[in-house]
UniProtKB/TrEMBL annotation, chain B:
Protein name: NADH-quinone oxidoreductase subunit L
Keywords for this protein: Membrane, Transmembrane, Transmembrane helix
Membrane topology: Multi-pass membrane protein
Top-level taxon: Bacteria
Keyword flag Heme: no
Keyword RNA-binding listed: no
Chain intervals with Basic and acidic residues compositional bias: 516-526, 539-550
Sequence ranges assigned to domain NADH:quinone oxidoreductase/Mrp antiporter transmembrane in this UniProt record: 121-396
Chain segments annotated as transmembrane: 6-23, 30-61, 73-94, 101-121, 127-144, 156-179, 191-209, 230-248, 260-281, 346-368, 388-411, 432-452
Main location: membrane
Annotated compartments: Endomembrane system; Membrane
Span list, region Disordered: 497-550
Amino acid sequence: MALAISLMSGLLFLCALAWPADYKGRARQYYAWFLFLQGVSLGLFLTLDLLVFYVFFDLSLVGMYFLIGRWGHGDAEYAALKFFIYTLAGSLAILLAILGLVLANDTLTFDMRELIAAQPLQGVDVRSSLVLLGFLVGFAIKTPLVPFHTWLPLAHVEAPGPASAILAGVLLKMGTYGIVRIPFSMMRETFAAYALPLAIVALMSILWGAIVALGQTNLKRRIAYTSVNHMGYTVLGIAAAGAAIGGDAARTLALNGAITEMVAHGLITGALFLMAGSFWQRTGTYELSAYGGLARVAPKLMIGFFLAAFASFGLPALAGFVAEFQIFAGTFAIYPWLAAIGLIGILITAALFLSMLQKIFFGDLVDQRQGFADLNRTEVGFLALLLVLVVLIGIYPGWLLTMIETGSAFLPLQGTEG
Amino acid sequence: MLFLVALLPVLAALGIPLAFRLAGSADRRLLLAIAMAGLGLTLLLALLAAAGGWTGIIVWSGPLRLTAVLTPIAGAMAMLVPVIALPILAYAAFHEDEIGLGRLVAILLLFVAGMELLLIADDLLTLLIGWELVGVCSYLLIAHEWRHADNAASGLYAFLMTRFGDLGLFAAAMAAYAATGSFSYDSLSDVSGPLAFVVAFGLLLSAVSKSGQIPFSPWLFRAMAGPTSVSALLHAATMVAAGAYILIRLEPFLTTVPGVPETIVAIGLATALLGGLVATLQNHAKKLLAASTSAHYGLMFVAVGSGYPGIAFLHLVAHAAFKAVLFLAAGIAGERAGSYGQHLMGFARALPLVAVMTAIGALSLAGLPPLGGAWTKEAIVTAAEHGSLWVAAGVILAGALSAAYATRFQLSAFGLIERQEQEASKAKPGRAETGAVVALALLTLATSLVWVPSVREALGRALEIEPHRGEPCHTCPVDRRRRFGCPDWHSLGPPLSGDRSYGTVFGDGGLARPAGPDRADRHPPRDTLGSGSRGGGRSGDRCRRPADRR
């Protein structure tokens, strides 16, 4: 799991770094912060130590804060501050929860493997419930789940395109990755007890994210809210996998689906935000009403955007479908109603993406977009890299699923009573 | 191996931009060549696959595996699709506007690929992939002329309507997995209890939306925003056919779930009647045909719901042939008249050859013997009669309506009086367009062969909707009985009693015969379904349950 997500992150960082952006005359600092953020993010996914995990988790906030605040546009500093305070509050909750978890253990250790083996907190007494709550709230803010999502659209809209791509593609994954890595693995009994409420929150995120996204008139806000929706799918899969009911096979399927969704969402939404950045670079606006008929002048951008959007709303033969199908199939065996209601999300995301695409690309060309430039060679190259992977995962995901399964074999799916 | 059948059109589609780049220009002839080569090879592969019994499997991981197999009906469908698509694409390559023509043909090829994938699918996952690919291609095709925002809106409307139905397929796949831990069709028979309802009604929902049945019919009309060739392909052998096909394919499972066959019949009949009514009142030539499409798929639903998937399939074939002719002809007439209003047409003198070819299609649509559409429609009446006399009466009424609007279409679009007053374009169809219409009309004529008993027998054998003459019921392979009912000629419908000739359109007094087995007998023992009370003296050696012999 960690390997798959790290590979995805590394690739996305590469593309985001290479993507043309507005450096505001401070190119050196821009790249420095970007590389800093990359190091921190990869460290977070690869570490096996809780304390290091926490440190990287916090440092990632710092990196993103500066990227948004300095190179963002509009009300960037406010957005960066809101992002920072929200997620810092989340990480404080996580810090307390980590301490609670570690102190409950007999020997003082931050080694994740030992903690997973020891399962220091069990049952649903006040202490373990509070610790679990701390983890879940902290990660839910980062993920973000409804009702902790309000920082996300703002941060996305004001951030430069490549930073948005990283925010959505990599930083959001820290939340879901954290859930799988810590409460899901280290407190499985407690997690199982609270899996249903978590799944319900995830369902709310799916629906709320999709419906609110449909109402947005701003290109980036719309994509941002679909992230809430997609992270909802992921958490739904994780919650179903952690529930102590249902067969092992279904739960494995749900978990694999959730992890595939992390990878797929990173690639797809990363690509979408990078392209959104290109829109800003060319016109300086994200308002959908300012666009129309772009298919005439920017066919390459259209193809890329269509492909990414199709993948995002779960069209088969593209990566999103593989993930969502597994999540839904696995979850249905455990929480049939939640999965069935969640399906509506698939329909709404299709509507919101296609109506957005039609507004931007179809119809008559808007006058002030006459000289709109198509994607240049760099952009096409790196976009193709991401989208080829999306198609590859969609058509033949065997290799990715094997990688995920090997990685998650240690996860305690078999441990809980089926 | 079998996946090649679906892969080939994709390769051909990808070849189009490549060929344009190499040739340096977009040339209609080049386009035609690629499309023909792609579809021809697909047809050839489908033939080879059906003859060689190819299968295919791609394992993703664990229960996620794509499997493909050709049942006889799937094999026939897999061949039918390229056969119908060939003339339609040839027509498209010469009829449609130059702008974006390469894109149009490429997406049409992808569309065929998606259709082939859902035909060869042997599990719900593969089915879902093909199903959704067809849906999204239909969106791109309907929105083909994207410069008009209306077309894109119509595409979105059609796509969302059908995708709503796709959720049913999602639900069915999820429920099947929850019940059996597998997505394969074979395991469906192990699903029971409430989950079986979810699977069956989920499948039904997706079939209803794809086939433009009530309440999803409106998308068929909105789909008319696409170019004519798109409408023709959409309505003849792909997309809309997918809904009926999946009911035919999974009929053995669907009929085991209480309430499902009745629902299928009810939806089908309601659509057949209302669709017929709308078509009779419709003046827009393409929308008339669209309404007629949903009505005819309604008839197929009635046949499936009554327990005669074989008949539904034959009607699907007959319908595919004549509907393709009519759409292409409507496109030619519409181009000449500059609009699809039928009051502006009347081109019998101007386009005599097309008019005659259209007449063949219209007569088959009307159900005039000896054309294929007549036989299949009549067979559906008899099939419906096994369920209830009222259903049969409804089907007869629907048949009468189709005769009425077929006549109206023919007489107004290709009538003798040219009604157009102002001087409009005198567009004449090119050779490829006329050729496509003629080819499809010949295909329609070929469906008439179903009237010949020996052909019918051969067909029944090839499609495995054939009885084992003289075999007592208990020796019939169980799975075959489950799949096609107790093997009896009745699987293929009434006219197969062979020695009788059918003079009238609606069968020789089919109404006078006693109705089929009681509804109580219809399930769960699936066997009684196929062995209706038809067939007179040949019953002794046939698989017949005592219950039917009352």
